[in-house]
């Protein structure tokens, strides 16, 4: 028995030493792990779970069962929920295809899945319009949340795909934004504000993904939607700022990597970074954001400088000749790009800059929220005319508030 006890004790001791060595090695590996690695930063990607699905829901048998349920469901609210699930299944299928082979057959299947997703979402919206008000509200809120998630997933789809397929995805995203807006013109701010709060998962940087989606919506929606959409963007920014206030240097590196991982082009990324600056942030973080913006502006300028005139024209057409809503960061970008062009293109860039400033003036006139005006004023650099417009608009709002208050007495 003594020998057996000694043998057992030796086994326990050896196992303990082995486990300790593994734990120690893991700790050393964690310390050596590069915090700059994008793989170490969670990007809040949209998964099956995010869309109220399971991975198995994309299988043939699961899709067959869902189709059968649809045939024997007669309640319009439940039919809309089933169609929403079908749309999300098609979108998840497209995601799997996008991460798979790049051969032409796979790309055709991907594009077919996107068309089917679009068709199912149109069916959802058609069914909702027939619902009584009480049932419509509940399902509409769910669809608004899924709209934001679907837009992010569509944005992420194109990362590794050929340009032709990317263009298809962009067209689908634009079509879905326009379709969503058609049914939300009169309640845009309320719907989006409720949806953004619901989608916010509480993680430090997740509101960056939401802001990226909202800013891409801004490029598609008409000028009449600008003020309400901008109010939602600013509220989302305020929630993000609360989470960023206490970032240490290591977390600031993670912020940089998170921004790097958001699948938007350089122009949109500069706009996103520009919107991060907030008076509520500590000075060291504000300096970090300004340095980050400057670095991205330098990168954009260098990239533009190395393009041919034909490529520069295409770049300007894609990034600065779209959207009806004025953006202060676009003015700054155009000033930078003008330094690296021929005389002919300089004239074009100056004209684009003037058009952007006209849109900014319109944006100021349509803004009734003083906080939104303050944030816009913070973003504008070396534009005295726009500053004057903002001051005049603020004075008018203050005067209207005083008159309203006097009438109530």
Q: Describe it for me?
A:
The protein has helices spanning 2-32, 60-71, 76-98, 104-129, 133-157, 163-182, 188-199, 206-220, 226-244, 249-261, 266-274, 283-305, 309-320, 328-338, 343-365, 370-379, 384-408. It has 409 residues and is mostly helical. It folds into two domains: 53-182 and 193-198, no CATH class; 209-409, no CATH class. The protein is globular. 31% of the residues are buried. Mean pLDDT is 83; it is low at 26-40.
Give short descriptive properties of this protein:
409 residues; mainly alpha; 2 domains
Provide the succession of SSEs: HHHHHHHHHHHHHHHHH
Give the radius of gyration. 26 Å
What's the total number of strands?
Answer: 0
Runs with pLDDT <50, length 5+?
A: 26-40
Sketch the major β-sheet: none
As for the number of domains, it is 2
What is the average of the pLDDT values? 83
Cα-to-Cα separation, first versus last residue:
98 Å
Fraction in helix: over 70%
Name the beta content range: under 5%
> Overall 3D geometry?
globular
Helix/strand-derived category reads mainly alpha
Summarize the structure.
Helices cover 76% and strands 0% of the residues. The chain contains 17 helices and no strands.
């Amino acid at each position: 028995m003594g020998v057996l006890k000694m043998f057992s004790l030796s086994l326990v001791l050896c196992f303990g030493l082995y486990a300790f060595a593994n734990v120690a090695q893991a700790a050393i590996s964690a310390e050596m792990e590069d915090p700059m690695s994008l793989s170490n930063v969670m990007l809040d990607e949209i998964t099956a779970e995010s869309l109220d699905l399971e991975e198995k829901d994309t299988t043939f048998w699961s899709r067959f069962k869902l189709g059968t349920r649809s045939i024997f469901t007669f309640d319009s609210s439940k039919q809309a929920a089933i169609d929403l699930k079908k749309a999300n299944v098609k979108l998840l299928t497209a995601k799997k295809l996008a991460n798979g082979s790049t051969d032409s057959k796979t790309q055709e299947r991907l594009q077919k899945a996107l068309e089917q997703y679009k068709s199912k979402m149109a069916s959802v919206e058609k069914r909702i319009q027939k619902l009584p008000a009480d049932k419509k509200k509940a399902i509409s809120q769910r669809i608004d949340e899924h709209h934001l998630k679907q837009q992010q997933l569509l944005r992420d789809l194109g990362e590794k795909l050929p340009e032709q397929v990317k263009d298809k995805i962009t067209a689908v995203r634009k079509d879905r934004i326009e379709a969503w807006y058609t049914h939300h013109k009169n309640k845009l701010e309320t719907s989006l504000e409720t949806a953004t709060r619901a989608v916010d998962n509480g993680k430090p940087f997740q509101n960056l993904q939401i802001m990226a989606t909202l800013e891409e919506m801004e490029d598609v929606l008409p000028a009449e939607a600008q003020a309400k959409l901008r109010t939602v963007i600013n509220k989302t920014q305020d929630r993000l700022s609360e989470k960023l206030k206490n970032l240490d240097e290591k977390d600031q590196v993670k912020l940089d990597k998170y921004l790097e991982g958001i699948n938007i082009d350089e122009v949109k990324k500069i706009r996103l970074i520009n919107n991060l600056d907030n008076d509520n942030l500590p000075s060291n973080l504000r300096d970090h954001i300004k340095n980050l913006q400057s670095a991205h502006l330098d990168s954009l300028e260098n990239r533009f400088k190395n393009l041919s005139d034909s490529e520069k024209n295409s770049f300007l057409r894609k990034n600065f000749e779209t959207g009806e809503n004025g953006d202060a960061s676009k003015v700054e970008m155009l000033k930078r790009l003008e330094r690296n062009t021929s005389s002919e293109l300089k004239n074009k860039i100056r004209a684009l800059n003037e058009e952007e400033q006209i849109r900014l003036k319109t944006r100021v006139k349509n803004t009734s929220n003083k906080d939104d005006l303050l944030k816009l004023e913070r973003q504008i650099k070396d534009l005295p005319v726009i500053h004057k417009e903002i001051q005049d608009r603020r004075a008018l709002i203050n005067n209207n508030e005083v008159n309203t208050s006097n009438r109530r007495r």
